[in-house]
Amino acid sequence: MSNKVLNLNGVNAAPDGYESSESQSLLGSVSIRMLPTPTGETSILGAMFILVNACIGAGLLNFPFAYQAAGGITISIILQSVLVGLIMATLLILALCSDVRQSTSYQGVVQEMCGPIGRLACELCIIAYCFGTCITFFIIIGDQTDGIISYIVKGDEEVKDWYLDRRFTITCWGLLIVLPLCIPKKVDFLKYPGSVGVLASLYICAVVIINYFAWKHTPSEDLVTEPSSWTQVFVAVPTICFGFQCHVSVVPVYSSLYNRSVKRFARVVIPGLFISFTAYTLAGIFGSLTFGSNVCSDILVSYHRREVTVMIARFMALANMLTTYPILHFCGRLAVDTMLQSIMKKTDEEWRFRERRRRVIETLTWFMLSLLLALFIPDIGVVISVIGGLGAVFIFVFPGLCLVQFVLQHSAASPRKRWFLIAFGTFLLALGVFIFSESFILAIMNDVSGQGKNIC
Asked: What is the spatial distance between Cα 364 and Cα 374, in angstroms, rounded to a whole number?
């Protein structure tokens, strides 16, 4: 992509030293000015791998349960296909809007399009989402540790010793491994083990498929084939949003793309989402066929047999969660830190004063709160139903707002095209608000009534 940025003021006159011209974009002709653009070094293949790494993760464990809770495989795949199509569009919208001022972060795009209030709201959502995801990771750590202990020590018998209790083992993992990895100022050293998460997730998907054929059993009498009501379909929406939420990571990926352009980025997004869609769909289908409505919210917990392949999957999931928690914590802590700096109106030099003490306090507070909540929430489905709805804010709400602002301020497309794009942006905004509200209310109702859960 040429070194061009859209003229924010819509003025054709260029500042001294810059060349003003007209260019065509996906939205029509726009007024642009020449600016130096950082040259990215990431190839299309490398960017696609990063995108898949951001998509496929802990949500894979919950897809079979979501498929059954939503009313069966067919309706879930249809719903998932529609949402993934919209997700693909919003990823390209973020890439397009990031070109306004060559933004390199999700918050930066929101600030350029929606102002400082929009950035503050975005940072609050990032903090809540990262915090909820960290709680999910602790719960998954407990799930896999229980299965590993049962396999090694007690077989299929119930674990009763206090030192093998779930709450004790989660606390030990947290204090001995997770907390020390969260304390450092940077977590660059975790980017390599963190990339193993894709292989771990694909292996878990393979285990689900292999065990279905190995067991040669389909619980047709327990398999849900259709929803009991139209509202039941929306139970799967938070899990789908949680699984495909890669939007916070996608702007840095686009900014690092070699010779970046929206057209080249489409070659990253389409195959990346297709790979993620395939993995999630296969896990949802074969997990549902294997256990039917008796599937647990964490698919690996459903395997009570002493299967070696399942034990390996549990070890891989455990290692993945232990190394991914610090990365999510770092993103959340950074959002907390920048938000506090903005609220207190401190310069960068002033904010560096006592940075270490502030970082330790923020880390300990984050760690202790997420650990305590995880100890008393035994089901990842409870947390995913909430943060999955919050993921819809990143997927639909902010991109919808950015698209509307982009068209109003920067596009010189025809009136009919402008109205269509504004209507589409408004639709995305309304859809995101609906999904978030519906998921949050449904999670509260299910928690109060005790329905919609299968803790195992």
From this structure: 15
